[in-house]
Write a structure and sequence with these properties.
By secondary structure, the protein is an alpha+beta fold. InterPro entries: RNaseH_sf, Tc1-like_DDE_dom.
């Protein structure tokens, strides 16, 4: 690793990590992260893996930079257009994006940490939450980033009776989670196979590959995995190029013919899963058609109502009568559909599986030819066996049980913002390593 030394205004020695050094630090982090993930999945019961858990700190110790530098490098890596892209010169200033991504592992840790504070009769502040989460998983973000992350998880602002400012979970987020947990618990008690499915994409050597796959606690659904080259590489690394029509074709030809009987198909709330089976009336719809729509839905109305009044009735009914094209297709084949609650990636088993696939590809790819990239992608899926799926699904069930346990408690999961009002943090645009 090549390092250039420079002195700060306060004479504290710092290191500017060049592009080659940043690439090496990122590789070390991914290696240690993969080591921890696989150890966790295949560990014996009661095996202590705490010494492997803080990946950022271990990376910092191994490479001689600070945790803050490691996290800045990882953030830059996420924003690169593909895994074959190189880190730019460290002195080039880069515009910061406002997008905050929620990964399932971090979402689970943050949510469970907030719960643990309240179970022990303590209302956390953002500063306390930041400290604990950082100690657990090395999530060393600034206060403002953590605040935005919580809003992405479904929290909202509220003032208490004493005029203190707090973040609390939105009621609709809580209800969505509760309904999902009750329903999936019912299906599990009936011994129904729970099928998780997902579509993802991966950009390699200028070619974007699309993945569609599914699995249960027993492993991948046989003959259902689909990998193909996208028609376009437009969009960022996290966009999804599978259209609604492509997904329906995959369901009909690959997934539904191969899933076990009485299966429950778990869907995420992505746009390509949410094409409505029928288009609801709009303000431009004819009055007679509005009246017929209300009759079809069994909604009583007076014939004398004006068109504006009819549409007001329709608006109140739309969200209660939503049917999706994909849901109707799956149900027509004799299966049930269960949609994941918004803001809860940690309840989706395929998020964990996809994380393992991405890590394997990232650790083994080296600007290969497209044919080599295809081979590597297939290898990554073949590395995941029934034991991995079993451990992943068992972990998801434990999360579900933990969440259900707290719904009858007499408090809401709030975060006190008052003590954090004067705290401000900033990060350097350049990748300057703080001395340890």
């Amino acid at each position: 690793m090549s390092l250039q030394s420079t002195a700060s205004k306060d004479n504290k020695r710092r290191k500017i990590v060049d592009s080659e050094g940043r690439s090496m630090i990122a590789s070390v982090y991914h290696f240690l992260k993969e080591e921890y993930d696989f150890s966790k999945l295949f560990a014996e019961p009661n095996c202590d893996l705490s010494h492997l858990q803080n990946i950022s700190q271990r990376t910092a110790e191994a490479t001689g930079v600070s945790c803050k530098t490691v996290l800045r490098i990882l953030k830059e890596e996420k924003e690169m257009p593909s895994t074959s892209s190189k880190f730019p010169s460290p002195l080039k200033r880069k515009k910061r994006g406002s997008k905050i991504e929620i990964d399932n592992f971090t979402a689970e840790v943050v949510r469970s940490t907030i719960q643990n504070f309240h179970v022990h009769n303590e209302i956390p502040t953002l500063a306390k939450l930041k400290t604990v989460v950082n100690e657990k998983i090395g999530f060393n973000c600034c206060i403002e980033t953590l605040r935005k992350f919580l809003l992405k998880l479904g929290y909202k602002w509220r003032k208490t009776e004493t005029n203190r400012k707090v973040l609390t979970e939105r009621h609709d987020v809580q209800m969505g989670r509760l309904k999902y947990l009750k329903k999936i618990s019912e299906y599990r008690s009936q011994g129904r196979p729970i099928v998780y499915n997902e579509t993802n994409n991966f950009l390699s050597t200028g070619t974007r590959f699309i993945f569609a796959y599914a699995g249960t606690k027993d492993g991948f659904i046989e003959n259902a995995t689909l990998i193909y080259k996208a028609r376009s590489i437009a969009g960022d690394h996290n966009s999804n190029n599978m259209s609604n029509n492509d997904y329906i074709k995959w369901l009909n030809e690959k997934l539904l013919p191969n899933v076990p009987e009485r299966s429950v198909i778990v869907l995420v709330n992505a746009s390509y899963y949410k094409k409505r089976a029928e288009k609801p009336p709009t303000p431009a719809t004819k009055k007679a058609d509005m009246q017929q729509w209300l009759r079809d839905k069994g909604v009583p109305f007076e014939e004398s109502l004006l068109k504006l009044e009819l549409y007001d009735l329709i608006k109140k009914q739309i969200n209660q009568n939503i049917t999706y094209e994909i849901d109707e297709l799956i149900e027509s084949k004799g299966f049930d559909v269960l949609r994941l609650p918004p803001y809860h990636p940690e309840l989706n088993a395929v998020e964990n599986i996809w994380g393992i696939v991405k890590k394997y590809i990232a650790l083994n790819s080296n600007e290969q030819m497209v044919t080599d990239a295809e081979r590597l992608i297939n290898e990554s899926f073949n590395k995941i066996n029934s034991v991995t799926w079993q451990n992943t699904c068992s972990h998801i069930e434990e999360i579900e049980k933990a969440y259900l346990k707290y719904f009858d408690l007499d408090f809401e999961f709030a975060i006190d913002l008052q003590d954090d009002s004067d705290e401000s943090e900033s990060e350097s645009d350049n990748y300057i390593s703080d001395s340890n």
